[in-house]
Amino acid sequence: MMISQGSRSGLNLSDGLQYIFAHVGQLTGMYRYKYKLMRQIRMCKDLKHLIYYRFNTGPVGKGPGVGFWAPGWRVWLFFMRGITPLLENWLGNLLSRQFEGRHSKGVTKTVTKQRVESHYDLELRAAVMHDILDMMPEGIKQNKARIILQHLSEAWRCWKANIPWKVPSMPIPIENMILRYVKAKADWWTNTAHYNRERIRRGATVDKTVCKKNLGRLTRLYLKSEQERQHNYLKDGPYVTAEEAVAIYTTTVHWLEGRRFSPIPFPPLSYKHDTKLLILALERLRESYSVKNRLNQSQREELGLIEQAYDNPHEALSRIKRHLLTQRAFKEVGIEFMDLYSHLIPVYDVEPLEKITDAYLDQYLWYEADKRRLFPPWIKPADIEPPPLLVYKWCQGINNLESVWDTNEGECNVLLETKFEKVYEKIDLTLLNRLLRLIVDHNIADYMTAKNNVLINYKDMNHTNSYGIIRGLQFASFITQYYGLVLDLLVLGLERAAEMAGPPQMPNDFLQYQ
């Protein structure tokens, strides 16, 4: 009304809408009638924090509202879309129940979803008991049966944790029987996990508890296969032969010599940009906590250490450099998976003090590598242009090709895209150390490779990472970019790579050749 009369601006309207969508709980109290609504209320609150996180900073100050109402409206729109047919259904059921009374189902009760797993365990236990009674002589059945069942549950725990199970002096027939039942349960457990994941991926209605259990099961299955991969590497590796390693190393040496690259030194004690790089590293670490309300013990500790480093940068820097120089044994790294339902993303939990050291090292390496032009112009995305400009340059590069649009004789242009599979998993740490020593100080190279050679832990599962790099380290992006450059050189060959990069005194721009 006020808007149509012209006494209020459109900005006020949009700001009011944004406020309404973000404060539905306070304004209406709807959650009292359907508590599931709290999900939408919390989501809108998170969106509000996310939108205002950068809005009220800098010269804007604590000014007018942002008026960005579309994301909050979207949340409630989807809610109404989903809840309307449900409400219709429930209302219909209520009315029919009022007029006709309840209809008792004339069917036998099946095992409910909640009890499927315990039901299977009871069936398994009964089958084991039956086998024991068949096996044992009359006098010693009862007291032995309980011990055998305890061994069975211990064997199952060992299978889940991927620990070898062996009880000395156990009779062979009983051991074989236990192993047979563990294998049967393992097959059922694995098949159920894959079946439920397929349902989740398809978008079927799946209980929240089933989703949580499924995530835990897939994590265990992934770690079992990862432990086997690491074990095979220690048994059969290294997979890169000496000749291949020498060829890779020599190619990289020739390339760096041709580009006149001077290696990145260890950060000196009185380094000019020390404090700036540390502040950037701390800001990046702190950014992940900007919209979080509830923190666990480790996260609280990390935030405390970040604040401490802000207050005493010189003390933090001297500690960081001491660790880079001397620390080669590290605390275990926790792993969990974030479930996006179509796929899982590994999330690594690194000890907070080590994380700050890694974050500083990452900032230092990228800054120095950029200054020394380690990465040639074809490596994208890069800091020299925002993505839209990169798209423009890409189109321009294609357009500038000689007679590219000439199709008189039925020619066509082909863009070929290929993908390296499992680059992270297949990086050999010994070779990586040698390659890193070509571009950084040997202390930094040793620190980076030692940091990847740590114990990885999930609940009762542990293994040491000896093959491949850990994605969750702060400087993993730098290692990947550098290793990607080495792979590029092997694919292109030094001559073609040098043509694309141009002379070191005056390097070519992206998609330009002199």
UniProtKB/TrEMBL annotation:
GO MF annotations in UniProt:
pre-mRNA intronic binding; U1 snRNA binding; U2 snRNA binding; U5 snRNA binding; U6 snRNA binding
Origin: domain of life: Eukaryota
Q: Which GO terms describe its biological process?
A: spliceosomal tri-snRNP complex assembly
User: How is this protein annotated for GO cellular component?
Assistant: catalytic step 2 spliceosome; U5 snRNP
Under Pfam families, the record lists: PROCN, RRM_4
Q: Which residues form the RNA recognition motif spliceosomal PrP8 domain?
A: 425-514
Query: Which residue numbers delimit the PROCN domain?
Result: 6-240
InterPro entries named in the record? PROCN (IPR012592), PRP8 (IPR027652), RNaseH-like_sf (IPR012337), RRM_spliceosomal_PrP8 (IPR019582)
Protein name (Swiss-Prot/TrEMBL)? PROCN domain-containing protein
Species this chain originates from: Protopolystoma xenopodis
Q: What is the lineage of its organism?
A: Eukaryota, Metazoa, Spiralia, Lophotrochozoa, Platyhelminthes
